[in-house]
């Protein structure tokens, strides 16, 4: 079985993620324990972290079959694909490795990871930006801690320098119960994974198990409002058999021929200062 990582835009990379997961699931169904990662052109968190988490969760090995001296394959080795790390190396400040962490907001390694994200931005006035990055990671991890019912999650972040701007992409993934199952037995119980993701984006909280409860959550809606409208960024959420991609007010839905146990959340945005309090509830 072959999977790929090409230098696509986000919309195309979503199709690539869906295709890669389907290929990996086919390999499992055929009893295979190895897949080949070919045509590696450019590595992004959205392309690579789901492969890492899916492979680890299902006991698969992903082999980079191209020339190992090529930049992309060499970079995969540098960021510790596919094992990841549980603590950050002190002697390396030029990359962020795939990192596996416990779902607690006060985790020291998460704080170090946030600082490393900020240091790589290398912008002069990072007041609001610093607060916003820390707000983003803490809200996403808090969401994992409250809903996923697991003992670890994965994170990967990267910067890309364009001609006029610098883009940051942060992805957090887990193999917890997923969005749909978190709504079971609540007032917002739904039939599909896509509906469950939309519930979260609409602020319909899954915290209460009381069927008549109408409790609302602000974490995911605030993230969406801040990074879609404040930053003009992009938001991707994958859970179960569905991927939902938001860019501004536009939405794309992808049904995948595989099943993601848990959730993946990706935020892609330009590095700049935005007052978060203009966008959060």
In total, the number of strands is 8
CATH topology of the largest domain: Heat Shock Protein 90
Mind describing the biggest β-sheet? Answer: 5 strands, antiparallel
Beta-strand percent range:
25-35%
Order of helices and strands: EHEHEHEHHEEHHHEE
Structure overview:
- The structure is a single chain.
- With 281 residues, the chain is an alpha/beta fold.
- The chain folds into two domains: 1-84, no CATH class; 108-281, Heat Shock Protein 90, CATH 3.30.565.
- It is built from eight helices and eight strands; from the N terminus they run E-H-E-H-E-H-E-H-H-E-E-H-H-H-E-E.
- It has helices at residues 10-29, 45-58, 71-78, 108-121, 127-147, 178-182, 193-201, 219-230; strands spanning 2-5, 34-40, 61-64, 99-101, 153-161, 166-174, 234-247, 250-270.
- The strands form two sheets. A five-stranded antiparallel sheet has the order 4-5-6-8-7, with helices on both faces.
- Helix 1 packs parallel to helix 2.
- The longest helix is centred in the middle third of the chain and has 21 residues, at 127-147.
- Mean pLDDT is 85; it is low at 209-216.
Can you describe this structure in just a few lines?
This protein has 281 residues and is of the alpha/beta class. The chain has helices at 10-29, 45-58, 71-78, 108-121, 127-147, 178-182, 193-201, 219-230; strands spanning 2-5, 34-40, 61-64, 99-101, 153-161, 166-174, 234-247, 250-270. It has two domains: 1-84, no CATH class; 108-281, Heat Shock Protein 90, CATH 3.30.565.
Descriptive tags:
281 residues; alpha/beta; 2 domains; five-stranded antiparallel sheet; three-stranded parallel sheet; 37% helix; globular
């Amino acid at each position: 079985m072959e999977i790929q990582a090409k230098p696509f835009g986000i919309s195309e990379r979503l199709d690539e993620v869906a295709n890669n997961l389907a290929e990996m699931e086919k390999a499992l169904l055929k009893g295979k324990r190895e897949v080949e990662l070919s045509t590696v052109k450019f590595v992004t968190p959205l392309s690579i972290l789901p492969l890492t988490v899916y492979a680890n969760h299902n006991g698969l090995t992903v082999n980079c079959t191209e020339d190992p001296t090529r930049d992309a394959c060499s970079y995969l080795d540098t960021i510790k694909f596919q094992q990841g790390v549980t603590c950050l190396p002190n002697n390396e400040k030029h990359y962020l490795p795939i990192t596996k962490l416990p779902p607690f907001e006060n985790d020291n390694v998460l704080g170090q990871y946030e600082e490393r994200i900020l240091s790589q931005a290398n912008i002069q006035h990072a007041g609001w930006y610093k607060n916003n990055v820390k707000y983003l990671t803490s809200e996403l991890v808090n969401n994992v801690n409250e809903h996923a019912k697991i003992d670890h999650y994965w994170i990967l972040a990267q910067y890309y320098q364009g001609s006029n701007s610098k883009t940051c992409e942060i992805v957090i993934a887990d193999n917890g119960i997923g969005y749909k199952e978190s709504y079971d037995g609540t007032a917002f119980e739904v039939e599909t994974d896509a509906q469950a993701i939309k519930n979260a984006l609409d602020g319909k909280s899954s915290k209460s198990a009381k069927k008549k409860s109408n409790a609302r959550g602000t974490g995911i809606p605030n993230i969406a409002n801040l990074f879609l409208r404040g930053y003009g960024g992009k938001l991707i959420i994958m859970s179960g058999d569905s991927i939902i991609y938001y860019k501004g007010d536009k939405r794309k839905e992808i049904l995948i021929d595989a099943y993601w146990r848990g959730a993946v959340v990706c935020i892609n945005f330009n590095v700049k200062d935005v007052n978060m309090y203009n966008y959060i509830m």
